[in-house]
Amino acid sequence: MKNKYKIFFPLLILFFIFCSALIVNAKTKATNKDKNKNDAIQRTSVGAFDLQQNTVSNIQFYTTNYGIFGLDILKNQGGGIWPRGSLNQYIFGGGIWFGAQKRYPATDTLLRKLVEVSYNPNSGAGWMIPGRIEDNKPTIDLTDTKTYRTYFSTDFNKDGTPMDPTDGPNW
Question: In this structure, how many other beta carbons lie within 10 angstroms of the beta carbon of residue 63?
Fold first, then answer.
């Protein structure tokens, strides 16, 4: 009886690995509708603080140019919806956290733990902005919608040129 289990379980595991490899490499069938579809601009930025929703794939999410991912900030609703258009929300909000040990000020001999957070899940606040900070003064032109906007691959043609020529440099 033990010999059956010794053979059965490894074969079962190999079967699942084989099936998962097939699923990962599966491609959808191209339809005539897809072949006739022209490239088009999917979104446009509307402000210096850019909140964009993706338009392609079966996962629906929001992203900003100041580090918040998943959260629809305007409605305070979560994202990471799968499948697209359903009510299955998997991410409320997320972001990037950077940590380092630094001497602060530079003359100090003690290493201090410093953290930069783009989205704090406890408060919903973030510490990042689009653009640069020089001398502890944020410099951002609120009317500039192109400089620090959020880009998606759908904003570009296959050769890397932007769909909208005024959008900025090539990919």
Answer: 19
